[in-house]
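User: Structure with S-adenosyl-L-homocysteine, tokens only please.
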Amino acid sequence: MKKILQDLSYEEIVSLVQRYGGQPFRARQIFEGIMQGKRLSELPVSADLRSNLLEEYEDEPVKAREIFRSKDGTKKYLFELADGNLIEGVLMQYKYGKTQCVSTQVGCRMGCKFCASTLNGLIRNLTAGEILAQILTVNRLEGGTLKERAVTNVVLMGSGEPFDNYDNVVRFLRNLTAEGGIRISARNVSLSTCGLVPSMRKFAEEGIPINLTVSLHSVTDEERRHTMPVANRYSISEILDACTLYFEKTGRRYIFEYSLIEGENADEAHAYALAALLKRRPCHVNLIRLNAVKERDLKGADAQAARRFLDILSGQGISATMRRSMGSDIGGACGQLRAKYISGDE
Ligand code: SAH
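Assistant:
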């Protein structure tokens, strides 16, 4: 595979242009062009510089191969990488703007029992530029520019565990928020982790004030081990300590994802235990009814049980909301579209 221009910071593009003997102002044009979602061959540079760059760098590292439109306005993108790997992204329409869900790895090795992304294990990490290019491509396809962004919010909740690809994800976040680029504010970015505690603690020191989101899904370590193998490595109490550190360092409250699974974690007793666990913490809980995945035998809690769960949390003074399931008619749950493609199942 060739290198990826979208991996580079503005300063790195300045050195690259110098190396090829290009005019310094070209670096700004190249950086802006890339951030506008242009392919390398569309950049305003001399024919010489273009052919030099094309020898070393991918023309279009992330191609939108198919777009699926849901009745509720959600769009799902199937992207093809330069090595032929496929990843997916979702764009959700909200009142305040559009939120794009991006992937950080091809596949995943965390092994959560309810998740389709991990069915075939980890294929490879995405580079920082491959993560960023998902957004730049969609922003352009949606008619967005650097001033009037079509993509306003980003969630790292596609396939992959962001903290299992730490360095690339941090580089991506720096380029996403960089001066002169697409400049999506860190406050509009949510990073979701299954709870890799050492990386959570390290990230607290990076000075990137995103919304830290943790997939909790259980109230005891023992139950958590049923569905999330990562619970064998880190305890809920270590996760909560890392969240506290994040709050101390950034002043940002943190968020817990809790997918309601029938017969696993969705009883009233679980709701009370969750409220007790999180009492007086500067946090928010996002509930969602598990999206059933064809290859898995776990089922989402029914609507009534979910409502009751939310009411108990709220009654106990916990800030919580129920997330709507969006785009379910086009394969809303993590990894479904890619899994469908690979198995050739229509
Ligand atoms: N690896 C990261 C990002 C994963 S996906 C993490 O674990 O947080 C984002 C969220 O979707 C996670 O909370 C994940 O647990 C959840 N999820 C995965 N499969 C799901 C499904 N079938 N139904 C509902 N939520 C699911």
